[in-house]
Amino acid sequence: MSEPQSVTGAPVSESRIVTGAPASESQSVTGASLSESRIVAGKAAPRGRFPHVKVAGGFAFVSGTSSRRADNTIAGVQVDALGTTALDIRVQTRAVIENIRDILAAVGAGLPDLVQVTTYLVNMNDFGGYNETYAEYFDEDGPTRTTVAVHQLPHPHLLIEIQAVALLPEGVRK
Questions:
Q1: What phi, psi does 29 have (nearest 5°)?
Q2: Can you tell me the distance from the alpha carbon of 150 to that of 135, in angstroms, rounded to the nearest whole number?
Q3: Where are the annotated segments for Disordered (predicted)?
Q4: Could you give the CA distance from residue 112 to residue 101 in angstroms, rounded to a whole number?
Q5: Secondary structure (3-state) at 91
Q6: Residue 69 CB coordination number (10 Å)
Q7: Which of 44, 103, 46 lies closest to 73, judged by CA?
Q8: Cβ(61)–Cβ(109) under 8 Å?
Q9: pTM to 2 decimals?
């Protein structure tokens, strides 16, 4: 078996993979801290070598999440018989938040445990619809939030991606 390598191809010597974890879950020990990475069944597979969520230090770090479904279709996209595409920021925002909810549930947390979110919007003209839908889930006691305009996301039909951090409930923290 070859040595684990970093993204740059350099050997990774300070961490080790703990065996015995299911294929969708891996644990690594780096120094004195324990972290756990998960790919959540029933969710769209990550488009790269990264987990849906990483648990470390009592927090859950959710990778950038879109409205992509497990079958690779995208919520909030309609294409008519002539090929005209209609994209709906409200449907996509709702799907993203619900995907994050499901990912958090896989590590024993939920939307009320979120402490910070960063939202990436392809078009700031969608901010109003995004904000209205976001308010269906969170109020002023919800997570801190930053919204950033980006040039594009990994698929031309994606309007939004959200990255999130949750504080794990006390009984779940390791």
A1: -110, 120
A2: 22
A3: 1-30
A4: 9
A5: helix
A6: 14
A7: 44
A8: no
A9: 0.81
Alpha-carbon gap, residue 63 to 45, rounded angstroms: 12
Amino acid of residue 48: G
Residue 131: exposed, middle, or buried by beta-carbon count in 10 A (0-12, 13-18, 19+)? middle
- C-beta atoms surrounding 29 within 10 Å: 13
Q: Which domains does the chain have, with CATH numbers?
A: 15-167 (3.30.1330.40)
Distances (CA, A) of 153 to 112, 150, 158, 166: 27, 8, 6, 23
Question: What's the per-residue H, E or C state across the chain?
Answer: CCCCECCCCCECCCEEEECCCCCCEEEEEECCEEEEEECCCCCCCCCCCCCCEEEECCEEEEEEECCECCCCCECCEEECCCCCEEECHHHHHHHHHHHHHHHHHCCCCCHHHEEEEEEEECCHHHHHHHHHHHCCCCCCCCCEEEEEECCCCCCCCCCEEEEEEEECCCCCCC
pLDDT, tens digit, 9 for 90 and up, residues 35-90: 999 999 999 999 999 999 999 999 999 999 999 999 999 999 999 999 999 999 99
Looking at residue 122, its pLDDT comes to 99
